[in-house]
Amino acid sequence: MKKTIILLALMASCNLFSQNNESTLKIFLNCNYCDITYIKQNLDFVEFVRDQKDADAHLLFRTQVNGSGGIIYEIEFIGQNNYSDVQDKLTFSTNSDSTDSEIREMILKYTKLGLVRYWLKNGAHDKISVEMKKKEEVDVIAQKDVWNKWVFDLGLRGYFQGQESNKTRSLNFSVTAKQVTDKNKFYLRGSFNDSRSVYTYDGTDIISSQKSTNLTLYDVLSINDHWSAGAFAEVGKSTYRNKAFYGSLKPAIEYNFFSYKESSKKQLTLGYKVGGIHTNYNERTIFNKEEEFLWEHNLSLGGSIKQKWGSITSQASYESYLKDPSLNAFSFYLGTNFRIVKGLSFNVSGNYDITNNQINLAAGDLTLEELLLSQKQVKSGYNYFLSVGLNYSFGSMFNTIVNPRFNF
Description:
Radius of gyration: 28 Å
Helix content: 10-25%
Structural class: mainly beta
């Protein structure tokens, strides 16, 4: 009994020591798209903590899509407590065909590189080794981009699902060409979608089918650090939207209240588009139209910010037909996730749309079959989505151990 008491006392003292161990560098990883388990298993000489306030180094990850379709990662190393004088930032890019394994290895590599100064200040000199690549004896010739920054993508996708009483299949084909430089951003995409569902009831097959074709072209010019101008064109057809053919062309201008160079951290943009839309309808519309040409304009205000306390993304937009401003639509979106106090975080995301511009709706009443199977667009003055969450976490400040047993 006496030995048991001594053993329990030793275990408690060891646990208390580990909770107050100041010699190990404590880090908080603020990354929603990282393989956290892989990093914990392969990053030594650190202790992961649950709350950013307990960390010596707060690693804040930001991402943006690069011109080739890959991702630009920016890691901001924010020193705290005794490390407040150590601040760094590292940036690297992945390719569009980079695998998950390659991406997580790059994230781990640059995470280690950014922590070197913290380890040195921590006194872990004997645990750090530096390896530099030898300079090649031959002159390095600058690699020439034979594609001149053009990137092409071909996609063919199929989705199949079924059971005894129903089955669904969806086919999608797309081709994309884009070129992104500091001065110009060009995007061209064509797509074809065909979906079909069959429901069997009492020996009768009920079929739902939708088809759409779309060709989109965007071309944007960089004027300076705050202004951009461009043109947006689109043609296509859609059975669901009652459009046998539609085509639009809209010149546009955008102003960023912050420099575009700061877009990974923060941006607030005001954009305006105006142009014409020509439409041929599959069926006569509720306004007794079989085809028409209308002028339309769009105004939008949107922004995003990502800091150590959390992130906010929001946008509000308005569009209407110039001929009749009462035919309009408003759209509002908000997404946020931030820390209120230690251990307590709050997140909300949602959108609300007011739609008074559904001039494409087919005349006549929908059948029950068309309504339930979503074969045609339905009149709706609004639609919304809302998700709200509150999370409180407490207990041990450390969060380093990985135990994958039973996959939970």
